[in-house]
Each structure stands twice: as C-alpha cells, then as structure tokens.
Amino acid sequence: MYLFIAMTSFSLGCKSPPIAPETLDDLASYLFLHMDDEDPEALLAGLDNLDVWLDENSEAAVDGYKVTNLSQEAVESLGLDYEPEGLVGAAVGYDIAHPVEDVVAVMMLAKADPDAKPSGELYSREYLEGDRECFAIGDCLALEYTSHSADFLPMGLNVESWTQTQHRRIPTEDEDRLLQRSWMTAPAVSNYDWLSIDQQYWIATLSPWGEKSRRVEAGWVVLRLAEMPVPEDVALSIAINEMRGMGEYYENYIAEKGVPQPGD
C-alpha cells in the first residue's frame, strides 16, 4: 500500500530527506533503530508514515498485530547480540481522548514515588539523564533510566528483569511528539523452567491527533519455551490487551483525578 513519498532534493549538495518504511512491522523496527539519532529528521519521517498508516488501519490497529521484523541493526545499535531465533512480537495502535501534554503529565507525574509498587513486588530505578518533572513540562527533551523489577504474574509465574528506558520529545510547529524505547540489559530470571526470556525490546510513540493523541506500542521478546502451558497466540493476545489497557488507564486517571501538575 502506498503511504508516503519522501520529497527529493534536486539541488546539488543538498541532503535528501530520509525515506521511512511503510508497513507497521518495518516502521516499528525503524523507529526503534533511530530513537536516539541526534538529527530527528528520520524519526519524523517514520512518525509521519505511522500517522498515515494508522489513519487507514485504525480499527484493525486497535485489535493488534503480530510483528516480527526487528532488524539486526536495531538490536546491535544497543551493543547487544542479535538473537532472531524465538523472536515474537505484538503491536497495537489506539487513540487517547486527551492531548499529548495531558497524557505526558499522567505518564510522568501520576505517581509521587515512581519506585512505589504493591507489597511483595520489587521495583527500583536509577536515573541516567533528566528527571520526571523537567520532562513533563518540556524543559528537558530526554529522560533515561535503568530499572530492576520483580513481577508476580498469573499462574504463579515470577519474572525478575533489568531494563533500560529512554523517553524523547521531538518539538514540532504544533505539539511535541514523543517516543519511548526500552530493552532488557540482561536475560530475565523466571521461576519456571519452561520459560526463558533472553531479550525484550519495546517502542512506543505518542503524537497529536486533533484534540486527542494517538499512541502506538510494539514489543518483541526472544524467548525459549518448553512445554509451555499457554499457546503463543494466547500470549500475544495477553500482551496486546496489556498494551491497549494503557490508553484506558490514561483516560480513566484524568477522568477521576484530573491532569497532575508538577509539585502535586
């Protein structure tokens, strides 16, 4: 399907704009790769294509897609080894009934203590760049941290993981556009022998859409399964529902508590 034509320059010595891919599977990998480019031009080209793709596939995007095309270059750009065997992924796109800055405020400021987790769970965070309030009000264009968590999931499954996360604002003539990228820095530790999560990658975008915002999330895992009690399709469905549930969380939070402000 034709989505986007990058304008080419006919002037000698001028750099041609980047040409972004056109499919969701390729776009997710492309945005993951270019997340920390100093020049945001390639990212903006990808985000423009993503807007067009979502406009034409919005109903299907809410239901979610299976994605697998995470490129070797995208993974190795993080200094990690690429392990394509066992790679599975899911992506979802949805609208949020609030503007970008309101969603960012909830994302950054809804918890007074970002390290707070339910009793019995472990979560710690170390900031490498920026801070939540600075990023929330737009004075910082980047936020980066590492985290260590232990999650207790259904069926008695416990998973301990170590993750690095980046947030980035891209200023435009209208509202800022945002991206989030995260990856596991070491294999996760599970209490079940049948599940080994060797690598995990995630990318999310947030863009203005009229008076609303539009979010896309894609995640990939490299896992090894032995006598897994849950079929892969069921696992992907669970992942899609979890990602889609974040949109409901933002809307419900604002409806119940309003938009959080710095210093609240």
Could you characterize what this model shows?
This protein has helices spanning 24-34, 41-63, 72-76, 100-109, 132-136, 232-257, and strands spanning 65-66, 87-96, 122-129, 142-153, 157-170, 177-190, 195-209, 212-225. The model is unreliable at 1-17 (pLDDT under 50). Strands 1-2-8-7-6-5-4-3 form an eight-stranded antiparallel beta sheet, sandwiched between helices. Helix content is 30%, strand content 34%. The chain has one domain: Alpha-D-Glucose-1,6-Bisphosphate, Chain A, domain 4 (2-Layer Sandwich), CATH 3.30.530. The relative contact order is 0.16. With 264 residues, it is α+β, with helices and mostly antiparallel strands. Helix 1 (24-34) packs antiparallel against helix 2 and helix 4 (100-109) crosses helix 6 (232-257).
Low-confidence stretches: 1-17
What's the number of structural domains? Answer: 1
The average pLDDT is 83
In what range is the share of β-strand residues? 25-35%
CATH fold field value? Alpha-D-Glucose-1,6-Bisphosphate, Chain A, domain 4
CATH class value: Alpha Beta
- The name of the CATH architecture is 2-Layer Sandwich
Number of helices: 6
Helix content: 25-40%
Compute the number of strand runs. Answer: 8
CATH superfamily: START domain
Q: Mind summarizing the main beta sheet?
A: 8 strands, antiparallel
**Could you state the order of secondary-structure elements as H and E?**
HHEHEHEHEEEEEH
Which shape, going by the Cα principal axes? globular
